[in-house]
Amino acid sequence: MQGKVIVVTGALGALGKVVAEVAQSRGARIAGIDYAPSQMPATPERIEIGGVDLSDAAQAKTAIEAAAKHFGRLDALINIAGGFAFETVGDGDITTWQRMYALNVLTALNASRAALPHLAASSAGRIVNIGAMGALQAGSGMGPYAASKAGVHRLTEALASEWKGKVTVNAVLPSIIDTKANRADMPKADFAKWVTPQELAEVILFLASDAASGITGALIPVSGRV
């Protein structure tokens, strides 16, 4: 990671914070992009760009260009920005499907489209997306979320094919991530069976590293230690 310039979307969320912190601790320079506002001053090692709706292509492009201008280049994009909704198909609302598509597919699509010219200019351009194991076979109440994450899987494969030889594009497919929010929503679950943000960060950052140069178009399940 030493010297790499990495854009992390959703950088102020539970997973994004961990990924950014681990990458920076290993010598990477970080551009964090998030919908939430940020007051952190820019430094040579890190810039945070808050208040960005990545489902809007123009806002995504402006944020990515600001990151590229600050550091002079981009080496990797980690698309963590997204959302979750639990709602059955029959009793749900069509707006939930639209919101999941915007939060999970459009954010990754718009950030990737904006970043790809910069990543292709790098000697080791990388994109890592966040899919979901729950999108491989959707259960009751998982329709809107699973459909949107399945879209992320197909986006990953298409970009990997289109940019092969220039930029690698892969996705990690976590099971339930061990966060405060998920523990609050599922208090009776066995948290030991969930994947931690730290475990997931290790896989994400491997895929963003030079060592992963031979991997592209992969959808990698990450289910934790149990």
TrEMBL record:
SUPFAM superfamilies: NAD(P)-binding Rossmann-fold domains. The lineage of its organism: Bacteria, Pseudomonadati, Pseudomonadota, Alphaproteobacteria, Hyphomicrobiales. It comes from the Bacteria. One of its GO terms (biological process) is fatty acid elongation. Belongs to the short-chain dehydrogenases/reductases (SDR) family. This is SDR family NAD(P)-dependent oxidoreductase. NCBIfam families: PRK05653.2-5. Signal peptide: none annotated. It holds the Pfam family adh_short. InterPro entries: NAD(P)-bd_dom_sf (IPR036291), Sc_DH/Rdtase_CS (IPR020904), SDR_fam (IPR002347). One of its GO terms (molecular function) is oxidoreductase activity, acting on the CH-OH group of donors, NAD or NADP as acceptor. It comes from Bradyrhizobium niftali.
